[in-house]
Specification:
By secondary structure, the protein is α+β, with helices and mostly antiparallel strands. The protein has a domain of 108 residues: Immunoglobulin-like (Sandwich). The chain has four helices and twelve strands. The strands form three sheets. Strands 1-2-5-10-9 form a five-stranded antiparallel β-sheet, with helices on one face. It has a five-stranded antiparallel β-sheet with strand order 3-4-11-7-8, with no helix packed on it. It has a two-stranded antiparallel sheet with strand order 6-12. A hairpin with a 4-residue loop joins strand 3 and strand 4. The two termini are 16 Å apart.
Amino acid sequence: MFLLSLTLLFVLTTAYGQPLSDATGLVHRMEVETGGHSFGIKAVSNFAISDFEFSKDEKKLTLYATGGLENNLSEIIIPRNLVGGNLTFYLNDQKHPAQINSNDEISFILLNFTGSGENKLDIVGTTYLSGLTVQDKVDMGVQKAIKKTDTSDDSFNWVILAGSLAVIAAFVAVKIKKRNSS
């Protein structure tokens, strides 16, 4: 009965909503230390980012991606003080289009590509460490301290998992009670 309930949960979720692989995202947080500063980069994607590199001379961030799906999607947030200006993207050394929305602080990048397996994504900017003021340096130190104490993403995932298990356990308990009373 438990296995049937668990199976129905996944079948109904997939049948009436997005496929599980399209609705999930892996959160990747990367810290780039350069020029005496630390910059946080965040990526949410349906593939794993196994490693990354940053080259200040080339103004380039390289992400190494490993995915098992044919259609890959990622949202990447990069501080404009780290790499900014006109951004160019290369997927496996071939120029690749991406949607970019920027403000004074960040570049929000939406990247979509096909192909499972190992991929290399280069993000190349035209500026590096631009616009840093004394206040920016203070703010970055405060943000770094906050990041060390921020566990909201992980806590939220555990709450969802615990809630799901509680619902399944209650469903099974009701079924067992009904079976024993009849």
